[in-house]
Design a protein that fits this description.
It is built from 14 helices and 20 strands. With 402 residues, the protein is α+β, with helices and mostly antiparallel strands. The strands form four sheets. It has an eight-stranded mixed beta sheet. The protein has a six-stranded mixed beta sheet with strand order 8-2-1-12-20-19. A hairpin with a 5-residue loop joins strand 5 and strand 6.
Length: 402
């Protein structure tokens, strides 16, 4: 027998993807859920996301896959290309070799809107302009955790979920402050019109010390661009740092073909520094839990940030609902999620160098190996990622791939 969540109060800090998904999953199990968001409206200024099958599984279980498919683009392939010539190095044909896997490209704002509307329909309370200054885990099983807002208001709940991102107050309450370090890489994000007719494919252009990822969004009307460059100087961490499109084009001046054509279309671009944070040692305690970037910020080289947050949200709600007590459920959540998140993040941390090879001779040899692998065993090339993409947290032990 699990613990009934009927009448239990849950406060979720942050109305992003992980926070809203957690609110939905907990509400579906009977909890009274309130989401506190510091912004004046629930919106996302980001750009594109890749929702891989492991993330789609959670949205499907929440009844939202059809809603996702509306504004999104279902991926047919992932194509690795040389930066200068633009020719194919490797094509991973999802439609042919993994037709059962649903893989979507979606604008972050569209996914947040989908989750927020579903939360409202389910009876989740969404409170805006609520800035949390401090999170106070409970000192004993008889106490409840609390938050102190910027207005000095104290808010208590049976469970507080910190889905408040890189600079999480809940993470600090559980772990203290950490010391992220600059990875030596910066990234630009932009969205441009899809007037080049890009097919429903992700294109990854690989060059010396740089790479660029592009894929269509919003039913194919737009193209998302993420361009990563190695550099000694750091850029401030975060999303909201405007930069000049000309600086982006100068940094990728030798990227030709489709890559060059897309860069010419950029009119607005943001730049941010890529920092590596440790996976949190404590994900829960005293009636407080953290998820998504608050627990395990990840570099964008496996496109798993949003997908891991969706997985976290489902597992948190499931473990709390089926445990004998809140403390047992939160402990089970961390045991189940922490090793997987650490493994995925380690894979992302090690992935960038594969796209940035120097010198040309080494890059040419690596590209040749990829071409041969794609020609001789394309299915095997895809299956190396089964442990990520076929991991289904909604299916219990049956859905685990490692």
């Amino acid at each position: 027998m699990g613990m009934s969540l009927d009448g239990k109060t849950v406060a979720v800090i942050g109305a992003g993807i992980g926070g809203l998904a957690a609110a939905l999953a907990l509400r579906a199990r009977g909890a009274e859920v309130t989401v506190l968001e510091q912004a004046p409206e629930i919106s996302e200024v980001g750009a594109g996301l890749q929702i891989s099958p492991n993330g789609v599984a959670v949205l499907r279980a929440l009844g939202l896959e059809e809603g996702l498919a509306g504004p999104a683009v279902r991926a047919r392939a992932v194509v690795l290309r040389d930066h200068a010539r633009g020719g194919e190095v490797l094509r991973l044909d999802l439609a042919r070799h993994a037709p059962d896997l649903a893989y979507y490209f979606v604008h972050r704002a569209d996914l947040v809107d989908l989750l927020a509307e579903a939360a409202r329909r389910a009876g989740v309370r969404l409170r805006l302009l609520q800035r949390v200054e401090r999170v106070l885990p409970a000192d004993s099983p008889d106490d409840r955790p609390a938050m102190v807002l910027a207005s000095s208001t104290r808010v208590e709940a049976d469970l507080i979920v910190g889905a408040d991102g890189l600079h999480s107050r809940a993470r600090v309450a559980l772990n203290g402050a950490d010391d992220p370090f600059f990875t030596g890489q910066v990234a630009w994000r932009a969205v441009v019109p899809n007037d080049c007719g890009m097919a429903p494919e992700a294109h990854l252009f690989m060059g010396p010390g740089r790479h660029m990822v592009c894929y269509p969004l919003r039913r194919g009307a737009a193209v998302n661009i993420v361009a990563v460059q190695e550099r000694a100087r750091w850029a401030a961490e975060g999303w909201h740092h405007g930069d000049s499109p000309d600086r982006l084009r100068a940094a990728f001046a030798d990227f030709s073909g489709l890559a060059g054509a897309l860069l010419e279309r950029v009119e607005e671009v943001s730049l941010w520094g890529l920092f590596r944070h440790p996976v949190a040692a404590r994900w829960q305690g005293g009636g407080v839990a953290i998820l998504g970037d608050a627990a395990h910020p990840t570099l964008p080289f496996m496109a798993q940030g949003a997908n891991l947050a969706l997985e976290d949200a489902w597992v948190l709600a499931e473990e709390v609902a089926r445990a004998g007590s809140l403390a047992e459920g939160l402990a089970a959540y961390q045991r189940r999620r922490q090793p997987r998140a650490a493994r995925v993040i380690a894979a992302a941390n090690g992935n960038a160098w594969k796209y940035h090879l120097r010198p040309a001779s080494l890059r040419g040899a690596a590209h040749l190996a990829l071409r041969l692998g794609g020609a001789l065993a394309p299915g095997r090339m895809l299956r190396q990622f089964d442990w990520i993409y076929r991991h289904d947290v909604t299916a219990g032990d049956r859905g685990r791939q490692g």
